[in-house]
Design a protein that fits this description.
By secondary structure, the protein is an alpha+beta fold. The chain has helices spanning about 1-10, 30-95, 105-120, and strands spanning about 125, 140-145, 155-160, 165, 170, 175-180. The chain has a domain at about 125-180: Head domain of nucleotide exchange factor GrpE (Nucleotide Exchange Factor Grpe, Chain A, domain 2), CATH 2.30.22.10. The strands form two sheets. The protein has a three-stranded antiparallel beta sheet. Strands 2-6-3 form a three-stranded mixed beta sheet, with no helix packed on it. It is elongated and about 120 Å long.
């Protein structure tokens, strides 16, 4: 009996039938309008891509400019400091030129001068070689023009004070005597 009661309360399955979709029914779409919207979207995407590429290029140029400016700034600071220190080297060289031959202190001064030179070289500082070279106002400062039969005209006869460069920047031009 319980089976009968249980069966009476079960819901009956209803059959749902769907109406067949006709193959001839299609949504009304304006293909030309869609094509126009697609072309506009592609043009806008190309414009955004172009803007992005331009911004990236500007950023790369900015980074390169900043790095170049920092390098220039460092070189200028280094050059400014070296301009203040070079007179000390000049004094050491003058002391060595006028030293007594047999004094022990002269060897110590010579070691100090060599150490000073090696520190400068390690920082990229180079002495301007001028003696016998053609006079170049970019690297030389003439303190006199003298007649000299041993040296061609407009060539350096002697260096009075050494000049130095760091990279391509002249820290201090060489003071020279020039042949007429």
């Amino acid at each position: 009996m319980t089976d009968k009661k249980h069966k009476q309360h079960e819901p009956k399955e209803e059959q749902v039938t769907e109406a067949p979709i006709e193959a001839t029914e299609q949504p009304q779409v304006d293909v030309n309008a869609l094509m126009k919207r697609l072309e506009e979207a592609e043009a806008q995407a190309a414009e955004h891509r172009s803007d992005l590429q331009r911004e990236r290029a500007e950023f790369v140029n900015y980074k390169n400019r900043i790095m170049r400016d920092q390098e220039t700034s460092r070189a200028n600071m280094k050059g400014d400091i070296l301009q203040k220190v070079l007179p000390v080297l000049d004094d050491l060289e003058r002391a060595l030129q006028n030293r007594p031959v047999d004094d022990a202190w002269a060897g110590g001064v010579e070691l100090i001068a060599r150490k000073f030179q090696s520190v400068l070289e390690s920082e990229g500082v180079k002495r301007i070689e001028a003696e016998g070279e053609p006079f170049d106002p970019n690297f030389h400062e003439a303190i006199s023009h003298e007649p000299n039969s041993d040296v061609p005209s407009e060539h350096v006869i002697a260096v009075v004070r050494n000049g130095y460069v760091i990279g391509e920047r002249v820290i201090r031009p060489a003071l020279v005597r020039v042949a007429q």
